[in-house]
Amino acid sequence: GLKEIRKHLVQTPLQNDLEDLCPIRQKILVVDDSPLNTKIMEAALIEDYEVLISHNGKEALSICNSNDPPDLILLDIIMPEIDGYEICRRLNRGAKTKDIPVIFLTSLTAAKDIEFGLTLGAIDYITKPFSIPIIKAKIKNHLAVKYYQDTLKINTDVDQLTQIANRRRFDDTMTLEIKKAKRTGTILSVLLLDIDHFKFYNDTYGHLEGDTCLKKVATALSATLKRPKDLAARWGGEEFVCLLPNTNTKGAQNVAEALREAIQNLSIPHESSPVNEVVTVSVGVVSSNPMDENSFDNLLRQADEALYQAKETGRNRIAV
Ligand code: GH3
Ligand code: MG
Ligand code: MG
Ligand code: MG
């Protein structure tokens, strides 16, 4: 899954060689109501992949919706209760599951069945009786593409240096959350954080130490946010932004103060800072008003104004 790849990307740069393209052990879910069929596939795949087995559609769907979804699904069509077509349809409808490749593995060999399976979004359709070596070769190719897609996805929404969300991911999430807040009549808050006198920090300790400091600050911000919907992102340079859905000004102030304190408690020495002997941040806080337009740009502009206030009134503090 994405988590595994992310870990790997941090450790080693991506290789171009196809053999090295899937350096992690990928996970395949085999769904078939016949235990004999799943045994055959498990035996064929277990050497190269982690194999999950499911004999019914409901269970298969819940595995795919878990926090540790498979990288590929081999899916039988004719099964009691939910059939393979319906499983494929539901996977494609779910935001979490729509990118999991599905290969149908079925005794339905009519052209219209094959066509139907493929129009539902399956990447391949294999008919029984099948050749194990051909299935293995197809799976390998499809998983290489999946790995490449996952890698691209991580690179588009994760900041390379700090490994937290990047600005693009923040923009997308914020756009969605503003809509949601309007629809549900809830308040969302945004925090804009800027490291105090970071230019002096670089001047004193060098850019490499500066980068290390940015990583520590980013990690601390992410770790300090408590709710699963909260998002910490790198806005650019030494500025960070936090999105707090369903959080009013009072709540946002508490979070901002907790973040400010968490950064100060990292105790990263900053001997040239006029504010404090350790690295600190200033934080601008803004909350949406259910009565207002609350455009993306408006909220960010207000957060920026609040941040400016925090800087002007002494730094290492929050302002609303
Ligand atoms: P203030 O308290 O007013 O925010 O002062 P400041 O020095 O932090 O503000 P300023 O915006 O003038 O400086 C930001 C510095 O952050 C300048 C730039 O060299 C540094 N910086 C931005 N991005 C990076 C980065 O990726 N790595 C490192 N090491 N430094 C960076
Ligand atoms: Mg069956
Ligand atoms: Mg700045
Ligand atoms: Mg700064």
UniProtKB/TrEMBL annotation:
Which superkingdom is the protein from? Bacteria
UniProt keywords, alphabetically: Phosphoprotein
Function of the protein: May play the central regulatory role in sporulation. It may be an element of the effector pathway responsible for the activation of sporulation genes in response to nutritional stress. Spo0A may act in concert with spo0H (a sigma factor) to control the expression of some genes that are critical to the sporulation process.
Record protein name field: Stage 0 sporulation protein A homolog
Q: Provide the organism lineage as a comma list.
A: Bacteria, Bacillati, Bacillota, Clostridia, Eubacteriales
GGDEF domain span = 186-320
Which segments constitute the Response regulatory domain?
27-143
Q: Where does this protein come from, organism-wise?
A: Acetobacterium malicum
Q: Does the keyword NADP apply?
A: no
Full-protein residues shown: 126 to 445 of 457
For the modification 4-aspartylphosphate, the affected residues are 76
Is Phosphoprotein among this UniProt entry's keywords? yes
